[in-house]
User: What shape does this take?
Amino acid sequence: MQLSAQQPAAQPVPKALLGTWQLQQLAFDARRPLTDTQIEQLYHDPAGEINQELKLGKLVQRLTFRADGTYLLSIKQLTQGEMSEQGQYWLRQDTLYARTTGGQIAGFSGEVLARLKGQVLVLEFPFWKPEDQVFEQERYQRVKD
Assistant: This one.
């Protein structure tokens, strides 16, 4: 997938996206039947371990979207410490794009807004090739400031 380095397109950012979101769960959404081999591959993905760390509070990932087009990503992991990243984000055809202040493509750049309703944000991206119709989803819960 090629990510455009262009600055924000005309699509306005939904006001519901603004604020801080905390990662709650990783999941897979298969939009077609999978082979046994593909199912086995999903079982060996580290998503299960990450979900356990999230549930136990050993991993906390927060993503803040500001009205001025900037974001802050912070990750606290018990075993690896803390890190943060900031930069600019924009939305084009319900896909988030972002660049760090250093000009690199942000980790969540290219993810699609699959759901944005109330206190829930779901971002998704193709797990394999897009035509395989298997998507990894990140479920976020709004953090009350």
The longest strand covers residues 19-30. The helical segments are 36-43, 47-56.
